[in-house]
Specification:
five-stranded antiparallel β-sheet; 714 residues; disordered N terminus
C-alpha cells in the first residue's frame, strides 16, 4: 500500500536517509550509500516502534546496537554519529503526536540501550575475532595482531566518543574504566574515580530498591536494571542521572564485568521541581496555594488513631473597598504583607499557611492536641493583624473574620471540612467581623439548608410550589370582616410548608423577590375580584379588600407601578380594593425618588399601609410626607393588653399613636390580637381594624368568604 505524502512511512524514510548519510562515511562496507540506507531502514523502523510503544523495551535498543555491529558499522565515529542522529532526529520524524518530553526521555534511554548493545556486540565480535586469531595464530600471527589492534582502537573510539557516561567495573565494585563524558559529569579525575568502589556511591535520596537490584546483578541473578539515581559531586552539588547497569559475561557465560551507562538529568529534574513549585505556590505571596493545601489537608485527615487537625479559614473584612478605592496594586501589596504576617504565625511543626485565592487564607495545624493549638493559632493571627499596614503613605487597618474547624482525623473529607470552615467564617463576618467563630454542626446544617432553599427558589416558582393564605382584617367597631392580608407560603418537597420568614429574605438576596412578589400580587388581586363577585349574590355590604406586602427590592423596581396597573386591569378590580403594605424600616430616610411610585399608586386609589409601625424609630413628623393611609401598629405595643389590667404606659403610647394617626386622617390597624380583652381595649382606644389569631389564623381564601358571609347574615 502506497503511503500518503509526508505520512509516517515518508518520515521514517527521511530519518533512515539522514542516518545513512551520517554513518556511511564512517563505515567499512562495500555497499553503496543507497544500499546502505536500505540496510538501515529496518533498524530505523524498530527504533520508531520502540519509541512509540506502550511500554519501554530496552532489548529493542540493544538489538539495534548489535545489528549496527553486524552491519560492519564499527569505525570509531559510527556509534557516536548514530547516537547523535538518534538524539536529534528520532523524536522529530518518528515521535508522532505524543508528549515531547516523554518521547525525548525514551529516546535517551534507547540511546543508552543501543550503546550497551553495541558495546556488547562489539565485545562479542572482539572475542570471536580473538578466538579466530588464536586458531589461526600459526598461519597469520601478524595479521591477527593488526586486526585485534584495529578492533580495540574502534572500541576505544566508541567508548571515549560517546555522549553519555560509560563506566566498567568488576563484580567486586572496583572501577576499571570510565570515559571522558562520565568524568565530566562527576567533575573528577580518572584516578579518583577508579579509587572509589561502586558501593561507596550511595546517596540519601536513593530509592530502596536501587542497591537490591545492584546486588542481584553482581550475583548474576539479573542481566540489567534501569533506575533514576542521585550522586554527590565533590563540590557538594547533586548529580541526577538515568542509570542503566548491565552484566557482561565471558565466553563461557560466567559474570565478569558490570557496564554502567549514565545520562545527566540534573537540569531536567531542576526544571521539573521548579514547575512543581510554581504549580503549588501562589505567585503573588509565595504561600502554598489551594492545590498544595488540599494535599496537606488530605494527608492530615488520613492520620492514624489519636491524630487531630485544626483549621483556621480567614477572610479579610472590607478588602474590596481597599481594592476599589486605592487600586489593585495597593490591594496586592496589602495581601503580601498579610501573607508575611500569617507565615510568621505558623512556624511550629505541623503548621502551615496557604492562600486559597483573593483575600482568603487558611492556616492548618496537626497533631494530638489541636483543640488548644488551633485557638492559640487563631489568637496569633488576630494579633498579627492588629498593627495597621502602611501603603503609599496611608495606614490601613486590617481586620479579618476566621472560621475554625477542629476534630479527629479520619471522620471527614477535605471538601466537607473546608465547607464547614467557610460557613463558620461567614457566621463570624455576619456577627460584625474582626473575630473568630468555632464550627457548630447545627449552624452548618442551617446554612446548608439555607443554601439549598436559595438554589431551589427559581425552580419552585416555575413548578408552582408557592401558595397564598389569607388572614382576615376585622373592623373593631362592628366586628365585620373588611378584607384580608395575603401571606405567601412555600410547599417545599422535602421541608413541607415554609413560612415567609424562611424564604423571603433569601428571595430578596437573590432578586427573585420581584417575580415572586408580582405573582403574589396577581394571585391576590384575582382572589379579591372573586370575593367581590361572590359577595354580589349574598347581600353582604362593603367590598372585601386585600392587603399585599411589598419588599424593599420591589419598591425600587422600575416596573412596580405599571405591573400593578396591568394586574388590576386584567382582573377588573378597582384600585381602592387593594392595599400595599410597606415596612416602616424600608421608608426611613426615603428620598423623593423612592416615594414617587408609592405616590402614583396612592393617587390612583391604591391604599398604602405603613407596616410594623413603631419598630423603625422614625420621626413621627415624617408621616406627613409619606403617601400612606393606614398605620399597622406593631404587635410589640399591644402584647401587654392580652391580660387585664393592661400596662398603663402601653395604653398611653397606643392612645397617642392612634390620636396622631387620626389627626393625619390615617386609619390604624393592629397586628397580633389574640384575646377578647385585647380586642376590646384596642376598640376603646380608637383603633380601626385588627388581625390576629383571636379572629382567625391564616387560611384558604374560601374561609374568608365564609366569615364575611356570617358577618353579613348576623
Amino acid at each position: 500500500m502506497r503511503a500518503e505524502p509526508d505520512g509516517p512511512e515518508d518520515r521514517l524514510r527521511r530519518f533512515a536517509t539522514i542516518w545513512s548519510r551520517a554513518v556511511f562515511p564512517a563505515t567499512s562496507t562495500s555497499l553503496t550509500r543507497p544500499e546502505f540506507e536500505e540496510l538501515l531502514l529496518p533498524l530505523a523502523r524498530r527504533l520508531s516502534e520502540a519509541l512509540r510503544a506502550r511500554t519501554y523495551d530496552a532489548e529493542e535498543g540493544r538489538a539495534v546496537g548489535a545489528d549496527l555491529v553486524a552491519a560492519h558499522c564499527t569505525e570509531p565515529e559510527a556509534l557516536s554519529r548514530t547516537l547523535d542522529c538518534v538524539e536529534a532526529y528520532l523524536v522529530l520524524y518518528c515521535g508522532g503526536d505524543g508528549p515531547q518530553e516523554d518521547l525525548r526521555a525514551r529516546a535517551a534511554r534507547l540511546q543508552s540501550a543501543m550503546a550497551a548493545g553495541y558495546a556488547e556486540a562489539l565485545r562479542q565480535r572482539t572475542l570471536a575475532e580473538q578466538e579466530a586469531i588464536a586458531r589461526a595464530a600459526l598461519e597469520a600471527q601478524g595479521a591477527v595482531a593488526r586486526a585485534l589492534h584495529a578492533t580495540e582502537a574502534r572500541f576505544r573510539a566508541v567508548f571515549e566518543g560517546a555522549a553519555i557516561g560509560i563506566g566498567i567495573a568488576d563484580l567486586d565494585g572496583n572501577v576499571l574504566q570510565v570515559n571522558g563524558a562520565l568524568l565530566r559529569m562527576f567533575g573528577v579525575t580518572e584516578q579518583s574515580m577508579r579509587g572509589r568502589p561502586v558501593p561507596d556511591w550511595r546517596h540519601p535520596d536513593d530509592a530502596p530498591q536501587v542497591w537490591r537490584l545492584y546486588d542481584e546483578l553482581v550475583r548474576g541473578e539479573r542481566e540489567h536494571y534501569h533506575t533514576e539515581k542521585a550522586f554527590s559531586r565533590p563540590d557538594g552539588t547533586v548529580l541526577w542521572t538515568n542509570l542503566t547497569v548491565s552484566l557482561l559475561r565471558d565466553a563461557d557465560g560466567r559474570p565478569q564485568y558490570q557496564l554502567a551507562l549514565m545520562e545527566d538529568t540534573t537540569e531536567r529534574r531542576l526544571l521539573n521541581l521548579r514547575l512543581r513549585y510554581e504549580a503549588t505556590h501562589d505567585a503573588l505571596t509565595g504561600l502554598p496555594n489551594r492545590t498544595l493545601f488540599f494535599e496537606r489537608l488530605e494527608k492530615a485527615l488520613a492520620g492514624g488513631d489519636g491524630q487531630r487537625f485544626g483549621l483556621c479559614y480567614l477572610d479579610l473584612d472590607g478588602f474590596k473597598t481597599i481594592n476599589d478605592s486605592l487600586g489593585h496594586a495597593a490591594g496586592d501589596r496589602l495581601l503580601v504583607e498579610v501573607a508575611d504576617r500569617l507565615q510568621s504565625c505558623a512556624t511550629a511543626p505541623g503548621e502551615m499557611v496557604a492562600r486559597l485565592g483573593g483575600d482568603e487564607f487558611v492556616a492548618l495545624t496537626t497533631g494530638p492536641d489541636t483543640e488548644r493549638e488551633v485557638d492559640d493559632l487563631a489568637d496569633r493571627i488576630m494579633n498579627a493583624l492588629v498593627t495597621p499596614v502602611r501603603i503609599d503613605g496611608r495606614e490601613l487597618l486590617v481586620r479579618g473574620s476566621i472560621g475554625i474547624v477542629e476534630g479527629p482525623a479520619g471522620e471527614r473529607g477535605p471538601a466537607e471540612v473546608l465547607r464547614s470552615a467557610d460557613i463558620t467564617m461567614y457566621r463570624a463576618k455576619s456577627a460584625g467581623g474582626n473575630r473568630y467563630e468555632v464550627a457548630d454542626a447545627e449552624a452548618d446544617a442551617r446554612a446548608i439548608t439555607r443554601h439549598g432553599l436559595t438554589t431551589a427558589l427559581p425552580a419552585a416558582l416555575d413548578r408552582g410550589e408557592f401558595f397564598i393564605e389569607y388572614q382576615p382584617l376585622v373592623h373593631l367597631g362592628d366586628g365585620t370582616v373588611r378584607g384580608a392580608e395575603a401571606l405567601v407560603r412555600w410547599l417545599h418537597p422535602q421541608h413541607g410548608v415554609l413560612g415567609p420568614d424562611r424564604f423571603i429574605p433569601l428571595a430578596e438576596h437573590t432578586g427573585l423577590i420581584v417575580p415572586l412578589g408580582r405573582w403574589v400580587l396577581e394571585q391576590s388581586v384575582r382572589q379579591a375580584r372573586e370575593w367581590q363577585e361572590r359577595q354580589g349574590g349574598t347581600g353582604a355590604t362593603g367590598q372585601l379588600r386585600v392587603n399585599v406586602n411589598l419588599s424593599p427590592c420591589q419598591l425600587t423596581h422600575p416596573g412596580l407601578v405599571q405591573d400593578t396597573v396591568d394586574i388590576l386591569e386584567r382582573a377588573g378590580l378597582e384600585p381602592d380594593a387593594l392595599c400595599l403594605e410597606v415596612t416602616e424600616s424600608a421608608l426611613i430616610g426615603a428620598d423623593d425618588d423612592l416615594l414617587k411610585p408609592l405616590r402614583r399608586l396612592s393617587e390612583m386609589g391604591v391604599d398604602i399601609a405603613l407596616d410594623d409601625f413603631g419598630t423603625g424609630y422614625s420621626n413621627l413628623a415624617n408621616l406627613r410626607r409619606l403617601p400612606v393611609r393606614v398605620l399597622k401598629l406593631d404587635r410589640s405595643f399591644t402584647q401587654s393588653m392580652q391580660q387585664f389590667p393592661a400596662d398603663p404606659v402601653d395604653l398611653k403610647i397606643v392612645e397617642g399613636i392612634v390620636s396622631l394617626a387620626h389627626s393625619l386622617d390615617l386609619a390604624v390597624t393592629v397586628e397580633g390580637v389574640e384575646t377578647g380583652a385585647q380586642a376590646e381595649q384596642l376598640r376603646v382606644l380608637g383603633c380601626d381594624t385588627a388581625q390576629g389569631w383571636y379572629y382567625a389564623r391564616p387560611g384558604p381564601p374560601e374561609r374568608l368568604h365564609e366569615l364575611a358571609l356570617v358577618d353579613a347574615t348576623g
